[in-house]
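Entry 0007
Protein: Phospholipase B1, membrane-associated
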Amino acid sequence: MMKDLPAPVTLEHVMSSTFIKKHFMDSNLNNTSYHPIIEKPDFHCEVKNSGLQANSVHQVTAADISVVASLGDSIMIGLGARGTTMVDFFTEYRGISWSNGGDADLQDILTLPNILKKFNPKLKGYSTNIARHYEKNSGLNFATVSATSRHLEEQVHQLITKVKQDKTIDFKEDWKLVNIMSGTRDLCRLCGDMDEVTPDDYIRSLVKTLDTLQTKMPRTFVNLILPINVSSLYALNNRGRCMMGNWSICPCLGNEFMRKKISNFYEGYKSLVYELIGSGVYDRDEDFTVVLQPVFEDLLFDVPKDRDLFSLDCLHFSAKGNALAATALWNNMFEPVHKKLSRWHKPLTIKCPIENSPYLSTRTNSKTEAKSKRDQDSKSGMSPAVIVTVTLAIIFALSLITAFVYLKHRLRTPITKLKFSNKPWLKYSI
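Output (structure tokens):
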């Protein structure tokens, strides 16, 4: 029989003084300080700005980005990133958030906006200091503590309204970078109302959000980031310092059966997102695109070596974890589609845009780059005999692969993703 699970609670409840006093004041962890080590960024890229603004989303460079914004959940807000005790863990350090933080500069704090500021010092929208989502210092980071994917629709409307109202932003002409990551809280709610966190629910909210951006906010490049498979973090919970299971924010992780269920739902989320983006529905315009960045897709953590990447709850990033996530996202943005790294290799270094192709990678310009490389290879001086031999070898190999895939498909039991509705976004698209 499955062990009874603690009832899910909201982060707002956890942050209350009553809850903190009850669960932490008498805890052995109360006097435990945790000081994450922050490494100095190694930035050696040559910064160039032609002075000409891109006319196509497929030719956008880092210097073209004038506005940065973020939508999502508590992973996006620097929650507890500089917390040294469980009492001050619940502070939102948005200024050092990997996706939207803009405190100081890159010399001191490694965030995506601080890298972008190297290319465009007039960047707008980043967060500073400590702030809640409704406070001025939050900038254009509309992610909130307890948000699930269904809150994205509200957040995107808040974003569009605020960008329109900002007199320093040219709504029609400025290029905007919007980072979207949600689903972590959905996965942590599987012990509760699963009707709101199924893969179908997740993709429906995501499609409505992306469709709204596509139709209502011109010149927008969207970084779409899959949530972390939180079941993979459970190993960190056994290190003694973690309070992940104790304060019931992610109670499902305390049960092996539910951890497997989380992984299955995560695979469902991922499968539908890949189908959605692969359909090309967001590649039809010259002023809008969505690129899937697999920043957290294949994360594997070495305990205890990777413990310093996380804050006291082993769920949210420490200052060091935020810096590493920012580097991974930046690197993903310039890696061709289908060649993006989905696993961190420490230490990560900031990749520089390629001189002859300095654009943020999209499905369209990745295909153009691949074609250009093939054309160069064809002019490399190979003899006709070699070309014929290579071509025949490729045809033979493809024939074998096709036969293998066909037989495997005939004999294989349908995989988990086929249990989910077929292309559900079609019925939700605006």
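Curator remark: The radius of gyration is 23 Å. The first helix runs from residue 11 to 14.
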